[in-house]
Fold:
Amino acid sequence: MIEFYTNPQSRGLIAHWMLEEIGEPYTMHVLEYHTSMKSPDYLAINPMGKVPALVHDGAVVTEVAAICTYLAEAFPKAGLAPTASERAAYYRWMFFAAGPVESAVTNNAMGFVVPDERKRAAGYGSLADVVATLDQHLSKSPYFAGDRFTAVDVYAGSQIGWGMQFGTLPTTPSFSAYFERIKTRPAWKKVMGGIS
Structure:
């Protein structure tokens, strides 16, 4: 059994989408930010006191990209893990989304902009560099790992969709077309309930 700890106003929505994609049973525990998320019981699972977290067969997995990757590999029948030919792109974009995209978007939203002369010191360069890199890839490829939907599309696709919705990423033709493709998935519709 999978135990899933989340809050609907968190990145846990991405992990929730991934759980629906794999189609395995799970128990969802909704935690509150300043109470149950900081309880001794939950801190024993995730000392950071944040969600999401997953417990499967006694193993704890935190961090959304790790949860998506883990579930794709633990439940291969869902077909969301990469094939041998997709593996390089899959890992490249999963880690790009978890590193440069997450950092650039968060820093920009908080008003921190890397000065041009310091771009080399930032792992992502600038938000414009990150956007251009994503835009270039999605202009040529229907999905992140190639011609089919994989777990990286759950993770990176959520960032693009919410980025456009909340104005933390620009709306480009490639982003819009890509997000239109992925938001038609039944698992997305079930979890998001019309949020688009």
